[in-house]
Amino acid sequence: MDVARLRQQIPVCQRYTYVNTGWSGPSPLSVTRAIRDRLDHEMDEGPTTPGVYESGRDIQERARAGVAQLLNASPEEILLTENTTQGLNIVINGLPWEPGDEIITCNLEHSSVLVPAYYQQRRHGAVVKVLDLDADEPADSILAKVDAALSERTRLVFFSHVQYSCGLRMPVKEIGRLARSRGALMMLDGAQTAGQVPLDVADIGADFYSIPGQKWLLGSEGAGALYMRGELVSQVEPIHVAGHGAVPGGDPHRFEASTGSIGKFTLSSSSAALRAGMVESLRFIQDIGVEEIEGRNLGLAAALKSALCDMPRVRVLTPLDGAASTGLVSFVVDGVNAKDGVSQMWEKHRIVARSVAYPDSMRVSLHFFNTEDEVAQVVEAVSNLA
Ligand SMILES: Cc1ncc(COP(=O)(O)O)c(C=O)c1O
């Protein structure tokens, strides 16, 4: 991987040490250019002028096909969304909950998992079982806890593939096998995987998988996607609906709900420009190769974790084992409030990182464009804090 050449295409690399891709990744020039070009085209030619409207639809289809390829799914199983959270909400609010149905999740989760799950408890009397996991909980222990929590009332096992809080990579394939063996569905939040972990939803056994465009894929905000296993589309009721939610017919006195097509979740208009950016970001990442990216991110993270582990008063929360982690690294400096630590890293070193509330920690995201030098800068900044 020619990191120096890639960094030339990502302008923020020339200004700051940007280690916050897990929140939002910096777009390469080509992504921003694709968005701008599409907006210019619509401005110059008119958005509904014959040829312009059709090319916008073609862009949307190319985005779906690109996501399908990234996830090893069929385009008919992909819905373009605004972000990860929208996709998760479409599924969880559209499943038929009965009082007493159970959802299994865990304490390390993002609010985009926990809050939609708790709403099913509030609305339908579903039971949310929140497993207590350590930030570096070993895979066999996670599986034992999931196994013990599963019951004949479990309808959904709902986890992030990689925990945003501490970077723990969950043993999702084995969790999926357990869920299936007990007749439960598995939904995964892929906010921290798409673009840094090779993904194959069929191999994982995910029933639903939701991703953002703006994090490790380096696209813009406002363009994400949801995978829904084909046979399940008819079981998920669309909550927000418009024309695509009905079988086309034209008779205003007759209505027949569309059931089998994922298009039923699509509302009216959406931005072709943002999708043009998504197509470009998918191309950019696939050209580098997700497997290569994963290897590089793990190497950078291992170097950082190893240096932090040698530092007095610093505790690494993220698993040290590569198989249980990614480019996300969370740590605590004894006696330093995480928010203050992140502010100081910015003020004194121009490092862009973030703090996480639970477990209270600082988090650094290392993506392929980050360098060994930047890892050394983070190490120096943390050493100053400690
Ligand atoms: C695990 C996880 N889920 C959901 C989200 C929210 O992502 P989005 O803005 O794409 O909905 C994030 C963002 O940090 C995340 O880390």
Structure write-up:
This protein has helices at residues 3-8, 29-45, 52-71, 84-94, 111-124, 139-149, 172-181, 201-204, 272-288, 290-309, 338-349, 372-385, and strands spanning 17-18, 78-81, 102-106, 127-131, 154-160, 185-189, 208-211, 224-228, 314-316, 328-333, 351-352, 354-356, 361-365. With 386 residues, the protein is of the alpha/beta class. The protein folds into two domains: 36-286, Aspartate Aminotransferase, domain 2 (3-Layer(aba) Sandwich), CATH 3.40.640; 289-385, Aspartate Aminotransferase, domain 1, CATH 3.90.1150. The strands form three sheets. It has a seven-stranded mixed β-sheet, with helices on both faces. A four-stranded antiparallel β-sheet has the order 9-10-13-12, with helices on one face. It has a two-stranded parallel sheet with strand order 1-11. Strand 6 (185-189), helix 8 and strand 7 (208-211) form a beta-alpha-beta unit. The mean pLDDT is 97. Pyridoxal-5'-phosphate binds at residues 23, 83-85, 110, 112, 160, 164, 189, 191-192, 212, 224.
Q: Tell me the number of helical segments per DSSP (H or I, 4 or more residues long).
A: 12
Largest sheet strand order? 2-8-7-6-5-3-4
- Give the class from helix and strand content and strand pairing: alpha/beta
CATH architecture of the largest domain: 3-Layer(aba) Sandwich
| Percentage of residues in helical conformation | 40-55%
The major β-sheet equals: 7 strands, mixed
SSE layout and pairing:
Blueprint: H1 3-8, E1 17-18, H2 29-45, H3 52-71, E2 78-81, H4 84-94, E3 102-106, H5 111-124, E4 127-131, H6 139-149, E5 154-160, H7 172-181, E6 185-189, H8 201-204, E7 208-211, E8 224-228, H9 272-288, H10 290-309, E9 314-316, E10 328-333, H11 338-349, E11 351-352, E12 354-356, E13 361-365, H12 372-385
Parallel strand pairs: 1-11, 3-4, 3-5, 5-6, 6-7
Antiparallel strand pairs: 2-8, 7-8, 9-10, 10-13, 12-13
